[in-house]
Write a structure and sequence with these properties.
Elements: H1 9-14, H2 21-32, H3 41-57, E1 64-67, E2 74-85, E3 88-99, E4 102-112, E5 118-127
Length: about 130
């Protein structure tokens, strides 16, 4: 199981996990049509806070939403399931974001490390 650092949350939730130059090019093309491409710094802060809140506090099936009144961008995070892997708490999280006329998201698996910090394990991103 590959664990991605929380700092890569932006990359993972913004498109894909970069593994090679080809994957990097594919991620860049995907990001061109992604709502996160249009996020402001405030949108990113709200979005990441929303993801952490959903992972830390929401029950499975409970949706947590965010909206930036200044930009009009918004989204939601919904834990789908919770489990334990190798002694760590893990959760599947469905994320949906909208910016301008674009909607996109995906389902991501996160596991908490020894310090309780969430790390992305994998992702299945989608565009609508």
């Amino acid at each position: 199981m590959r664990i991605l650092p929380m700092l890569s949350l932006t990359a993972v939730l913004g498109g894909a996990c970069v593994i090679s130059p080809a994957a990097s090019a594919a991620a860049a093309l995907w990001m061109d049509d992604s709502p996160v491409r249009h996020f402001t710094d405030q949108d990113w802060d709200m979005f990441k806070g929303n993801v952490r809140d959903a992972l830390d506090n929401a029950a499975d099936g409970e949706t947590r939403s965010w909206k930036n009144e200044a930009s009009g961008n918004h989204g939601s995070s919904t834990p789908i399931s919770s489990s334990e892997k190798d002694g760590r708490r893990c959760r599947q999280l469905k994320v949906v974001n909208q910016a301008k006329t674009l909607t996109g998201g995906g389902t991501f698996e996160f596991c908490a490390n020894d310090k309780g910090e969430w790390r992305a394990v994998n992702e299945r991103a989608s565009k609508k």
